[in-house]
Amino acid sequence: MPGRRAPEAERRQQLLESAFAVAARDGLDGLTIRAVAAEAGLSHGLVLFHFGSKDGLLHALLNWVLETVMIRPGEDLDAIPPSRRLVAAMERETAELADRQAWTSLLFEFWIRGMTDDLIRARMQTAMTAYRADLAPLAADLIAARRSQLGALAPMDLATVAGQVILGFAIQQLVDPDPDRQAHLRRTLAALLAAIGTSEDRDEDDHDDDEHDDGDDDPEPGHAGDAR
After folding, report:
1. Average model confidence (pLDDT) for the chain?
2. Cα dist. 129→5, 16, 62, 135, 163 in Å?
3. Distance of CA 195 to CAs 95, 99, 167, Å?
4. Higher local confidence (pLDDT), 72 or 188
5. For residue 228, how far is the Cα from the chain centroid?
6. Which of 128, 123, 133 is nearest to 170 (CA)?
7. How far apart are the first and last CA of the chain?
8. What is the rounded CA–CA span in Å between residue 227 and residue 119?
9. Which of 80, 131, 149, 219 is the most buried (most CB within 10 A)?
10. How far apart are CA 166 and CA 70, in angstroms?
């Protein structure tokens, strides 16, 4: 009795996982139709059926890596006060870099490839724009909570800076992958972010205090000596 044929979506997923294994091991230059077929234990004709060409395979792998790695940084933060969500997202993203080193390394190789490949460059730029857009509402919440210090900033600008901090951590990890060094840098960042995220804006409280002071029973001018 013949074995069960895998659905096309399942087979495509298997091939993408094999393509990632090949690229992570041999780099994008080593990503060939035959290498992926051998890694997956399937025919090279099946790889061509799903991706059409080596370039099709390359672009499909990029999309898959972006969808897997660059998840929405603002997700699952509902339990955290709005003014602290940007800080929480940055802490989480930098902490998870240690578990995604192979993915991060491959993304930077794609960035380099994108310098001469318009499709790759456009796809990477789209992904980064979407990533910053997901951080922007978190930035807006922080700005609203810290109006006296951050009120002049635009949410997207702050989101872009936050994204650059995360990107910088990713680069640092590739340059210096020592786990102890990375843990020390994450603790340093956590201390800095804590100073930002836990200092609540006092504008509202100051406004309330002013209103309360306006109702104080201070003596009116000219009546201080009325009591005789």
Report:
1. 83
2. 39, 24, 16, 10, 10
3. 18, 26, 21
4. 188
5. 72
6. 128
7. 114
8. 86
9. 131
10. 12
Q: Is the pTM of this model over 0.90?
A: no
**What per-residue confidence (pLDDT) applies to 222?**
47
Instruction: Give the distance from CA 88 to its chain's centroid.
Output: 11
Measure the CA–CA gap between 102 and 95, rounded to whole angstroms: 15
Instruction: Flag whether pLDDT at 1 surpasses 70.
Output: no
Round to whole Å and give the CA distance between 54 and 32. Answer: 6
Closest CA to 110 of 153, 70, 53: 70
Q: Write phi, then psi, for 3 (nearest 5 degrees).
A: -70, 165
The crossing angle, in degrees rounded to 10, of helices 54-69 and 101-114 is: 130
Q: What average pLDDT does range 74-84 have in this prediction?
A: 85
Mark 60-70 as b/e (b = at least 16 C-beta within 10 Å). bbbebbbeebb
Q: Tell me the CA distances in angstroms from 203 to 53, 84, 142, one per residue in order.
A: 60, 17, 14
Report whether pLDDT(144) > 80: yes
**Distance separating alpha carbons of residues 186 and 152, to the nearest angstrom:** 28
d(CA 174, CA 90): 18
What's the distance, CA 6 to chain centroid?
34
Q: Please say whether the beta carbons of 44 and 33 come within 8 A.
A: yes
- Report whether pLDDT(33) > 90: yes
Contact 59, 123 (CB under 8 A): yes
Contact 173, 101 (CB under 8 A): yes
